[in-house]
Each structure stands twice: as C-alpha cells, then as structure tokens.
Amino acid sequence: MSDQLSNAQRAVITHAATETNGKVLWFPEQIRGGAQGKILQSLLDKGLVIQNGDDWSLTERCYALLDHPRTVSLLPEIPEIPVFVKTLSAEAVEEPINIEKDKPLKQTKQQIMIDLLSTPDGASIPELMAATGWQQHTVRGALSGTLKKRLGLRIESVKTDGADRTYRIVETSGDAL
C-alpha cells in the first residue's frame, strides 16, 4: 500500500504521526486550498484518517502502514484550585446525612463573588480576580451585567484614598439576598 501514497500524502501523515500526536495540522508549503482537501479525501478513502468535526486524525491502519507506534501524551499537571466551602449551621451538622437530599452544593464563581460582596467591607476588583481566577474585564462585566442587571442586586462602590475601589452588595429594607 505504501506505493499508493503520493509524496505529499506521505509527508502529511508522517508529520502528523511524529509531530502532532496524530492530528493532521500541517501540509507541505506548495499544497494549498483545494489540494489540501483532495489529499485529506484521498487519505480518508484509504482509511488512513478520520474526521471529527473540523479535526482530522490518523487511524490505527495509518500507524501500522507507517510502522510507527502511536504516541501517548501525558496530561499536564493540573495546579491546585482553591475551594471555597460554606460552613454548615449547627442544625445541619446534627442532622443525619441523606445522600440523595444532601448533595454538595456547587460553589460557582458567581456565588463566590456574591459571598465576597456580601461582607461588610465588600471586595475590590483585585480580590474578586484572585478569588475567581477571572481577568479584570470579566469581573467588571459580571458586576454590571450579571449581578446588577440580571440578578437585580444593588452594588455600592466606594473609593478611599490610597486604596482600591471596593464594591459591596447593599441591602435596603425589604431586599433579601
């Protein structure tokens, strides 16, 4: 079967097998546009690649043809992510745990922001960024879009000399979080 492959086809699958963990991401410089599609279609017809959405990957048959073992990339180490846990009330601790009823609540980043903003001192943009892992523009967007507009929370902004602007959720009579 190896004599049925053109030089360009062989270059594409060899590069994918050795450089990109089996994903077809590269073509020789002289192969452009429609020619790339024809190469992929030809490799697909020969059972050497498969298509997943917009991605093209080598098949086991292709690895056998190349006499090249499939490389397995190890997943990168995932850094520790801070977990924010709410404390339980005394009544909740004394009650027996019902697995169906007492599934742990997912602490969302939105809830983390609400918890920080609900404190008497509130929180600054850098504090909210550190707690959520978001960038500054995302925190600002969540404050104005999600918390103010969508959830209807009243957020107070206070600027003191020599310190970052702080934000906090303001409760008025009749409001409840």
List the helices and strands and how they pair.
Blueprint: H1 7-19, H2 34-45, E1 49-52, E2 55-58, H3 60-66, H4 90-94, H5 109-117, E3 123-124, H6 125-132, H7 136-150, E4 155-158, E5 166-169
Antiparallel strand pairs: 1-2, 3-5, 4-5
Short description:
By secondary structure, this protein is an alpha+beta fold. It folds into two domains: 2-66, Orthogonal Bundle (Arc Repressor Mutant, subunit A), CATH 1.10.10; 105-169, Orthogonal Bundle (Arc Repressor Mutant, subunit A), CATH 1.10.10.10. The chain is built from seven helices and five strands.
Task: Describe the protein.
- The chain is of the alpha+beta class and 177 residues long.
- The protein folds into two domains: 2-66, Orthogonal Bundle (Arc Repressor Mutant, subunit A), CATH 1.10.10; 105-169, Arc Repressor Mutant, subunit A, CATH 1.10.10.10.
- 39% of the residues lie in helices and 10% in strands.
- It contains seven helices and five strands; from the N terminus they run H-H-E-E-H-H-H-E-H-H-E-E.
- The chain has helices at 7-19, 34-45, 60-66, 90-94, 109-117, 125-132, 136-150; strands at 49-52, 55-58, 123-124, 155-158, 166-169.
- The strands form two sheets. The protein has a three-stranded antiparallel β-sheet with strand order 3-5-4. A two-stranded antiparallel ribbon has the order 1-2.
- The longest helix is centred in the last third of the chain and has 15 residues, at 136-150.
- It is rod-shaped, with a radius of gyration of 28 Å.
- The protein starts with 6 loop residues before the first helix and ends in an 8-residue tail after the last strand.
- The mean pLDDT is 78.
